[in-house]
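Re: export button greyed out
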Amino acid sequence: QVQLAQSGDEVKKPGASVKVSCKASGYTFTNYDINWVRQATGQGLEWMGWMDPNSGNSGFAQKFQGRVTVTRDTSISTAYMELSSLRSEDTAIYYCARVMKAVGSWYFDLWGRGSLVTVSS
Amino acid sequence: DIQMTQSPFSLSASVGDRVTITCRASQTIYRYLNWYQQKPGKAPELLIYGVYSLQSGVPSRFSGGGSGADFTFTISSLQPEDFATYYCQQTYSTPYTFGQGTKLEIK
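Workaround output, generated via the alternate export path:
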């Protein structure tokens, strides 16, 4: 079925990096942008960035620029988000989401289940 | 960046009630306004896109409206499974900002 399967939970030390994967199935991976959204415990949703799996083009929220990298492996329909220089404030659930682009409206119609990243010494 | 101001922050209501949440953008976002539902421990789910279009499989008691920069989300008759947190989101320009969320609780 159509889904985004994310990698498992991670525990990292401050200063380290984490790489979260998002494997698409049931649809053509390169036809839809993948976006990344995170949510700290008890907090709201925070958009991080986007990637076009076809071209590899990407863009990020300013607060993450320089610390986040998104890549993809089209042969296995998988997107990756790597966040570096981790600090405790990066402890959150990280979601990937597919973007549906209709005329006049773009929306996140398919979400992964989330990957919890805990940053702790 | 476009700021999304959602209200109320929390809402207490009973089964069968009609509830409305509002979302105001800091500038015109045309029809690039979506609504999501999130239950504890789960990923968000799309309910409404393009201001008023109902996502496939979503019950018709959910509806959206508004234009320009002011939008509403309404549940016509609350069901027990509707108690959750709701977020608006603009996708007019990056960063694709979300509202702060509205937690809908049982009275």
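The CA atoms of residues 40 and 92 of chain A lie 4 Å apart. The button fix ships in the next patch.
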